[in-house]
Write the structure tokens for this entry.
Amino acid sequence: MDRRTGVSATETPESRRQGVPSGLFRILLSGALAVLVLGTGATSALAFGTPVQCTARAQATVFSPWGDNASYFLVPNGDFENGSVNWALSGGAKVVSGNETYHVDGAGDSHSLQLPPNASAESRTVCVAVGEERIRLFVNNPHVSGAILHVDAIARNPTNGYIGTASFDVNGDVSSPVWTPTMQLNIPRMFSGNGTEELTLRFTLRGTSATWGIDDVYIDPFKSY
């Protein structure tokens, strides 16, 4: 049991389904730390950009090499090939040369996001629908004991303004390849009457100072338009 998160490091049916060895489970995803529902006054949690509308999106089974055959679509500029477009960066976060080593979004991709200590990044808000309830991405793990990449998945019901936040930690103190796909991260279910919600992803660092990398941020589109 990881005392920081309360999540066991043993293999789970989900980790077996996605082809992730049990020894990597804790480093890839410590688990959902909390789901917090806030009132309508918390709309500032969705601070960046007019929400990208729900439409038909290009999908691909980009995580199939890891036993995950679900189709995914890329969040706006989730491959960072267009610099910082559609991202709010602070604290020294920047797009750098060097792609995740598997090139799942394209053989020609050549950039990723770098988060040094005290940096943060927030994605463009995007509309998601019922069935589009998971995210997955690649992280460049610094392999520093006590280093943590903290992920907030912030969902807003556009009808009543209520907000839910699911938080996840990716730990940097277990051996793994430098670039590693996370587990599937569930996002809150705050859907409106028409079956949509607005999702923003926020990445911050905790624990021991270290520099992390992020690349190819995807959403699992179970829904078909």
The longest strand covers residues 196-207. The mean pLDDT is 81. The domain at 31-219 is CATH 2.60.120 (Jelly Rolls).
